[in-house]
Design a protein that fits this description.
With 446 residues, the protein is an alpha/beta fold. It folds into two domains: 332 residues, Alpha-Beta Barrel (TIM Barrel); 99 residues, Sandwich (Jelly Rolls). It contains eleven helices and 16 strands. 48% of the residues are buried.
Length: 446
C-alpha cells in the first residue's frame, strides 16, 4: 500500500548532526579580513597583505562577548572572496604569513578557535570557494584541488569544527572560464575529517533561509520536497532548490514532491548594515527592538539565527556592538526568565485529550496570570507534525482565542497583547500525526 503524504512526512527525521545544530539556536558570525582594513565589503584579491595589521587583536574579547550574549558558536570568515587567508596556509602567499602582524607568525584561525574553547563556544569556519586572488581559479580541476587542500588545513589543524559555511558565489577566473565547484568532494572531505560538523547554506545539512535580513517564513518547515536522489545532490545543485519560495513545506507543496528530506533553515543577518566593519556605521548598529524582532522571527520560527558582529581594525568587537549584545541578552532574559505555566515538560505528551479530530491541552496556571508570549516546542526527533494551532484563554465562561499559529518544529514563539487568565488551552487544529510536544511556556514582557 502506498504511504500517505502524512506518513511520508512523519518518516523524515533530523540526523543527530542536524539536531545538535538546531539546539544551538543562536550563533555568531565574524567577518574579519583584509576588507576590514580597506573599508570594503568585497575585495578584488589584489590587496597588499601588509595592510592586515590589527593593533589590539583579542579573540577572547570576541568569544566572551558572544558567549555572554547567549550565542553557542562562533563562525569565522577564514577566507572571503578576496582570497586572503587568516591562517598561514601552505597553498598561497596571500595570507597572514605575508603580513607584518605577529611578525608573519600570526594565525587568526588558531587564536579564535582557542578562544572559543576557553569560552565554551563551538567553533565554525567560513571558507569562500570564490577566490579572486588565486590564479588557478577557473581551471576547475586545478582549483578544486587547491581548495580541497585549504579545507584539509582548516579541518585538520584547528580542533573540532561545529559548522562549515559555504556560499555559492562564483565567477570566471583569469582564463575567462567559469569555475565549476566539485561540491561532492568538498562534502566528502568535511564528513571524513569533521564528521560532526554541519555543512551549511550550500551544504546538505542546513539550507539558507532565502534572505539576509535574519527573517524566516511565517511557517518555516524543516521537512521539504526534493527531486534529487540524495541530500548531497540537493545541496550540490542548490540553485535548483526553491530557497526563495514563499512556501517551502506546506501540505500542498509536499503532495507534489518526488521525495522529502529534513533540511532546516539558517537565518543570517548583520548587526550593522554591512558584513565587514566600517567606522561610518558605528551609529547604525541595530536597535534592541529590531534585534528582538529578528530573534522572534528566526529562532521563534523553527530556524537558527546567525548574527554577524564584525571586528574592527584593532581586532576587537566595537564597544557599540558589545553593548548592544549585552542589552539584547538582558531583554531576552527578562522576557523569558519566568515561565508562568506549571506543566512539567515530561508530562506534556500524556496530557493531550482528543476533541473530535483535534488535540487539546488544557493548563491551569494556579491563579490569574498575565502573559503576552507563548513558547512551543515539538519533539523533532520524532519529526515535524503540527500544521496549525490556537491558544485560548478561559474568560467570562467561554474559551476565547488569544493567538493562532502554523507549524511549530523545534521552537515557535508568539507575541500578542497582554492577557490575564487562570486557565489556557492549546488546540492543535491540524497535524500530520499524533502531537509530540516537548514544551509549552507562557511569559510576560516586563
Amino acid at each position: 500500500m502506498m504511504a500517505t503524504m502524512d506518513q511520508q512526512a512523519l518518516a523524515v527525521r533530523p540526523t543527530p548532526r542536524q539536531l545538535a545544530w538546531q539546539r544551538l539556536e543562536f550563533i555568531a558570525f565574524t567577518h574579519f579580513g583584509i576588507n576590514t582594513f580597506t573599508d570594503r565589503e568585497w575585495g578584488d584579491g589584489q590587496e597588499d597583505p601588509a595592510l592586515f595589521q590589527p593593533t589590539a587583536f583579542d579573540a577572547d574579547q570576541w568569544a566572551e562577548a558572544c558567549r555572554d550574549a547567549g550565542m553557542k558558536m562562533l563562525i569565522l570568515t577564514a577566507k572571503h572572496h578576496d582570497g586572503f587567508c587568516l591562517w598561514p596556509t601552505k597553498q598561497t602567499d596571500h595570507s597572514v604569513r605575508s603580513s607584518p602582524w605577529r611578525q608573519g607568525q600570526g594565525d587568526v584561525v588558531a587564536e579564535v578557535s582557542a578562544a572559543c574553547a576557553r569560552a565554551g563556544l563551538k567553533f565554525g569556519i567560513y571558507c569562500s570557494p570564490w577566490d579572486r586572488h588565486e590564479k588557478s581559479y577557473g581551471d576547475s580541476p586545478a582549483y578544486n584541488e587547491f581548495f580541497r587542500a585549504q579545507l584539509c588545513e582548516l579541518l585538520n589543524n584547528y580542533g573540532q569544527i561545529g559548522e562549515v559555511w559555504f556560499d555559492g558565489a562564483c565567477a570566471e577566473g583569469p582564463n575567462g572560464k567559469r569555475q565549476e565547484y566539485d561540491w561532492r568532494s568538498y562534502y566528502e572531505l568535511v564528513r571524513r575529517l569533521q564528521p560532526e560538523a554541519a555543512i551549511a547554506i550550500c551544504g546538505p545539512d542546513v539550507r539558507w533561509v532565502g534572505n539576509e535580513s535574519g527573517l524566516a517564513r511565517e511557517d518555516e518547515w524543516s521537512v521539504v520536497p526534493a527531486s534529487a536522489t540524495d541530500q548531497a545532490e540537493v545541496a550540490a545543485n542548490f540553485l535548483d532548490f526553491d530557497a526563495l519560495g514563499a512556501d517551502i513545506g506546506s501540505r500542498d507543496k509536499l503532495e507534489q514532491a518526488e521525495r522529502l528530506i529534513w533540511y532546516p533553515a539558517e537565518c543570517d543577518v548583520s548587526i550593522r548594515p554591512g558584513w565587514f566593519y566600517h567606522a561610518a556605521e558605528d551609529l547604525q548598529v541595530k536597535s534592541v527592538a529590531h534585534l528582538l524582532d529578528i530573534y522572534h522571527r528566526s529562532v521563534g520560527r523553527n530556524s537558527l539565527l546567525l548574527l554577524n558582529v564584525p571586528p574592527d581594525p584593532r581586532g576587537l568587537l566595537h564597544e557599540h556592538d558589545v553593548a548592544r549584545l549585552r542589552e539584547l541578552r538582558a531583554a531576552l532574559d527578562a522576557m523569558y526568565g519566568t515561565d508562568l505555566t506549571r506543566v512539567p515538560d515530561n508530562d506534556l505528551n500524556a496530557a493531550w485529550d482528543a476533541e473530535g479530530d483535534q488535540a487539546v491541552l488544557t493548563v491551569d496556571l494556579g491563579g490569574d496570570r498575565t502573559f503576552d508570549r507563548l513558547l512551543l516546542q515539538e519533539d523533532i526527533e520524532q519529526g515535524q507534525r503540527v500544521e496549525s494551532f490556537v491558544l485560548e484563554a478561559w474568560h467570562g465562561g467561554h474559551w476565547k482565542p488569544v493567538v493562532r499559529g502554523g507549524c511549530i518544529g523545534y521552537k515557535r514563539l508568539e507575541r500578542f497583547g497582554r492577557v490575564t487568565a487562570r486557565r489556557v488551552r492549546l488546540r492543535v487544529e491540524q497535524t500530520r500525526g499524533p502531537v509530540r510536544l516537548l514544551n509549552l511556556g507562557l511569559f510576560c514582557q516586563p
